[in-house]
């Protein structure tokens, strides 16, 4: 049992919750999972992208804990058959000047209710572009993209690859009093001063496309769309970029070139993609090798050999050569030839270089690129 572990069955519900949240804050835990199993409960932390069990407890205690979460987040404690979502605001007893917020998601399963707390990030925890692990040349390319007055920038990768963190680092770099920035998010997870953040909730009515259409009437200079999920949102985002706005968004594709192909498959005309696309960032998050023990395992990394995370990235800036290829609807092979001729650093190459520098293990690179 490591220092994250908690004897859940030996303390009161209130003390257990306090202990869990304290560890979440102290050790940069992103999510806390409260899960029903057969006749018992389990609590797991997501740390550096992976889940680990920190406590087991009786089924009754788990349900009491979930009921307490409902009370604290303003949910209906009598309802156990429907999905419920809320926000838990927590002022630690050990630091009255420090407020914490968690998004609470509760869902019924065949073994009982499961709850997940996702820690919401305030501006004090916002990462800067210089902290995201970009190679210098890639950072400069991204700076060039976000300095544009209009066009669209995509950040791509699977869920949990840090796309939203990168988007907010970009917004933080370019926000200033004389420009109007609007974000459309589902849900809002990072709060940014001076930015109009709009939560998109399809269950309550309204899609990304509908909120984007409304947002365009708010005289925006820059629009961040949390995710391109459908053809209508893609069309609206491209139209916004075409009419003088800078649009930043994410899309689920394996790599940067895959984004160009995906837009084509979604029915976006090649000439519009060529005219509006500024660039694409593809990325993955890797666990960093613990600096203290160099991967051997110690008390600092909870014997795991890893502490913290960094990113590997591929950045493609859409220049005249790429625009012509996109306009002509060239296939992936021809786009790969252009990338190779430009000596663009791929995800694999960036990962191998970080492994050679001792920042990550080569097995981590292989794991995230499988």
UniProtKB/TrEMBL annotation:
<feature type="domain" description="Bacterial type II secretion system protein E">
    <location>
        <begin position="216"/>
        <end position="230"/>
    </location>
</feature>
<dbReference type="InterPro" id="IPR001482">
    <property type="entry name" value="T2SS/T4SS_dom"/>
</dbReference>
<protein>
    <submittedName>
        <fullName>General secretion pathway protein E</fullName>
    </submittedName>
</protein>
<keyword id="KW-0547">Nucleotide-binding</keyword>
<keyword id="KW-0067">ATP-binding</keyword>
<dbReference type="InterPro" id="IPR027417">
    <property type="entry name" value="P-loop_NTPase"/>
</dbReference>
<dbReference type="InterPro" id="IPR003593">
    <property type="entry name" value="AAA+_ATPase"/>
</dbReference>
<dbReference type="GO" id="GO:0005886">
    <property type="term" value="C:plasma membrane"/>
</dbReference>
<comment type="similarity">
    <text>Belongs to the GSP E family.</text>
</comment>
<dbReference type="Pfam" id="PF00437">
    <property type="entry name" value="T2SSE"/>
</dbReference>
<dbReference type="GO" id="GO:0016887">
    <property type="term" value="F:ATP hydrolysis activity"/>
</dbReference>
<dbReference type="GO" id="GO:0005524">
    <property type="term" value="F:ATP binding"/>
</dbReference>
């Amino acid at each position: 049992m490591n220092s994250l572990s908690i004897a859940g069955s030996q303390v009161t519900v209130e003390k257990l919750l306090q202990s869990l949240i304290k560890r979440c804050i102290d050790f940069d835990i992103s999510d806390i999972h409260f899960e029903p199993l057969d006749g018992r409960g389990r609590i797991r932390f997501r740390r550096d992208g992976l889940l680990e069990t920190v406590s087991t407890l009786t089924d009754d205690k788990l349900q009491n804990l979930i009921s307490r979460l409902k009370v604290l987040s303003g949910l209906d404690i009598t309802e156990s058959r429907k999905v419920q979502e809320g926000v838990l605001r927590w002022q630690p007893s050990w630091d009255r000047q420090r407020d914490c917020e968690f998004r609470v998601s509760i869902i019924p399963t065949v073994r009982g209710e499961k709850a997940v707390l996702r820690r919401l990030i305030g501006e004090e925890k916002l990462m800067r572009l210089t902290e995201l692990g970009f190679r210098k040349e890639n950072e400069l390319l991204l700076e060039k993209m976000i300095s544009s007055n209009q066009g669209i920038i995509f950040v791509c990768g699977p869920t949990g690859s840090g796309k939203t963190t990168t988007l907010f680092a970009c917004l933080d770099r370019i926000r200033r009093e004389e420009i109007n920035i609007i974000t459309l998010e589902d849900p809002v997870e990072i709060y940014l001063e001076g930015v109009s953040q709009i939560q998109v909730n399809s269950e309550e009515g309204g899609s990304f496309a509908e909120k984007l259409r409304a947002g365009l009437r708010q005289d925006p200079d820059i629009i961040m769309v949390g995710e391109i999920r459908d053809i209508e949102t893609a069309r609206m985002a491209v139209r916004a970029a075409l009419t003088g706005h800078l649009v930043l968004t994410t899309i689920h594709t394996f790599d940067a070139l895959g984004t160009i192909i995906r837009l084509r498959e979604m029915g976006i005309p090649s000439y519009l993609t060529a005219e509006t696309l500024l660039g694409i960032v593809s990325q993955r998050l890797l666990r960093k090798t613990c600096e203290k023990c160099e991967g051997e395992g110690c008390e600092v990394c909870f014997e795991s050999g890893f502490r913290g995370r960094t990113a590997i990235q591929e950045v493609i800036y859409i220049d005249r050569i790429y625009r012509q290829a996109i306009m002509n609807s060239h296939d992936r092979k021809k786009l790969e030839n252009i990338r190779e001729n430009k000596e663009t650093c791929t995800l694999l190459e960036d990962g191998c270089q970080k492994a050679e520098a001792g920042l990550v293990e080569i097995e981590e690179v292989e794991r995230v690129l499988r």
